[in-house]
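Amino Acid Chain and Its Fold in Token Form
===========================================
What this section holds: a protein sequence and its matching fold, both as plain text.
Structure line: whole-number tokens from a learned vocabulary of local backbone shapes, matched to residues.
Purpose: to set a sequence beside its fold so the mapping can be learned.
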Amino acid sequence: LRDREEIEGAVLEDYVEWAEELDNLTFSEAINARTSEMGRSGNSLAAEICCLLAQRINNDAEQKMLIAHGKKVACDDVEFVEERGGALAKQYSHSIQASIERMCDKAV
């Protein structure tokens, strides 16, 4: 999403619709553990997707929903990687959480 400016309109709305369901944004503990070993947890990717979508859309209600979902997933992810993630996964997770916190501050 970051480098794909051509994603807009109905396609972007499809992504937003997908992100409305928290179950779509959370991965199992096994997947997060494995991807954390490779440097980045699955949940940190989902939180970043919420962040990127919120930056791209103009609908305030959808933006707030994406930020809230991203914040929840990011908070849960930071807790997980603090216990089980590697150094790189922790770095990514904390970075995404900080980005979402800045978005929350701007949205208020």
